[in-house]
Amino acid sequence: MMKNLLITNVTIVPMTAEESFIQNGYIFIESDVIKDVGHTPHPPHLKEQAKIIDGEGMVAIPGLINGHTHTPMSILRGYADDFPLMDWLKKMWAVEDRMTEEDIYWSSMLSMVEMIKSGTTTFCDMYYGMDRIAIGVEKSGMRALLSQGIIEGDSGGEELLTETVEFVRNWDKSANQRIHALLSPHAPYTCSPSLIEKMVEQAHILDCSIHTHLAETREEINIISERHGDTPIALMEKIGLFTRHVVAAHGVYLTDEEIDILKRRQVGLIHNPKSNMKLASGVAPIAQMLDKGVTIGIGTDGAASNNTLDMFEEMRFASLMQKVSLEDPMALPAYETLKMGTSRGAAALNIVDQVGTIEAGKKADITLIDFRKAHLSPVNDVVSHLIYSAKASDVAYTIVDGSVLMNNGKLTTIDEEEVTWHIEKIKNNLL
């Protein structure tokens, strides 16, 4: 049974208003919901109703939202580095064909360990064997948007579509509504327009979102042009993909007209800066898209192409990449970047009514960062430190739905030693 929590003496960055924060504040959590946020002193009766977390020297932010992941790929971290995307994919797929359901479960659990320890509370995942990942999410206590990725292959994708529809029916809004299930055509170059049209039809029936990769590399642009005489975004617009809410990873190669489509169709674009850099995919026009009003979150992509799931590092790379590529030190400033990892990330995933800010009525997904560190001193600007200085190891508490998943640096729902033992065993058999 969930207990009430009272976080005291904490600096709060609520992400509810432009660059506002509360010094020496408190957060009262009743069951799984934030009930009150304010300045110290808190109402005296709250102490009697809750377990207290002393936030002295800490900063509270909304739980970080990793908008695009492939959690089982943590087992492939460091396996095939320094290859371009299409060559890298061939190497990945060759190993993934041999992965069992147990391999998928423990590899996804490894990713959840890393994410909880680095302050991530929500992730949006695309892979296969998704039933096992969902079981892991239930155990971990995290919030997740899960989708069974479909790569068409020779079968035409019909059997896979049937399986993924069944997954949505079985898992959507499960685990106290912490799990949302989506449909997922892998990409326009791995799924035919006719299959994607069928998936859109099912998404309307199931009332669910769609998660896909779009406009990631020049090679993808060339493939779609040769096959269909179009760009990926224009093709998806023609076949009706954007008639549902879409979470689209990457968006590196976009025309002005395509950016307008993303804005008009309210697509949630997920920026993956480190993966795009490591695979030399290119630099997404994030600053331009934000200026045009596109809703953008941040994701790590899989650990095989990143090679971490550290959202602090990802946010830092996102900001710095825009600055250097545009030769503009004012591009993508710290607060805008933090929005992409929290409130704007929630909007991109279409869950902003539940999470993404620290305010009364929202789900109690909160990350506490310990600022009593040399690299975070002196505290001249809290948000600047969060983006340009903070590390995953600075996270002290990770809270989801009012449950403490990491308590002062110690995991409470997952046995990390058990996970890493299984991972070493799997690695020796698989790689």
From TrEMBL:
Its EC number is 3.5.4.28, 3.5.4.31. It holds the Pfam family Amidohydro_1. Zn(2+) binds at residues 68, 70, 213, 301. Keywords: Hydrolase, Metal-binding, Zinc. Its cofactor is Zn(2+). Residues 60-404 form the Amidohydrolase-related domain. Substrate binds at residues 96, 186, 216, 301. It comes from the Bacteria. SUPFAM superfamilies: Composite domain of metallo-dependent hydrolases (SSF51338), Metallo-dependent hydrolases (SSF51556). GO terms for molecular function: 5'-methylthioadenosine deaminase activity; metal ion binding; S-adenosylhomocysteine deaminase activity. InterPro entries: Amidohydro-rel, Deaminase_MtaD/DadD, Metal-dep_hydrolase_composite, Metal_Hydrolase, MTA/SAH_deaminase. It catalyses: S-adenosyl-L-homocysteine + H2O + H(+) = S-inosyl-L-homocysteine + NH4(+); S-methyl-5'-thioadenosine + H2O + H(+) = S-methyl-5'-thioinosine + NH4(+). Binds 1 zinc ion per subunit. Belongs to the metallo-dependent hydrolases superfamily. MTA/SAH deaminase family. Catalyzes the deamination of 5-methylthioadenosine and S-adenosyl-L-homocysteine into 5-methylthioinosine and S-inosyl-L-homocysteine, respectively. Is also able to deaminate adenosine. This is 5-methylthioadenosine/S-adenosylhomocysteine deaminase.
